Every structure is written in structure tokens, then in C-alpha cells.
Amino acid sequence: MTITNFLQNFVQYLTEAFARIFGPNDDEYPNIGLQPFEGEPYEQASETEW
User: In the chain, what are the helix, strand and coil shares in percent, each to the nearest 5?
Assistant: First the structure.
């Protein structure tokens, strides 16, 4: 491998990484927003229940 090929591959590697970091998001998560709490609130047990 010659020095020019090495430099070309190295520069390509860096530019691809830069494009991936600073490029648009490619996440495919749904936009669901906040979800309401559907559980029961925690009630601390009184000392007589122990």
C-alpha cells in the first residue's frame, strides 16, 4: 500500500466519521412524546404493618 492510498483512506475515514456525527439524525424512533403515569402511587407502609 502506498502512502497516497493510505492518506486517501485515512481522509475518507475521517470525513465519513465527521458526516455521521454532524449529519442529520437517522434514528427511527417514533415521536411519542410524554406518556401518562398509569401506575399506583407509592404509599409508605405504617410501622404497624411490619
Answer: 45, 0, 55
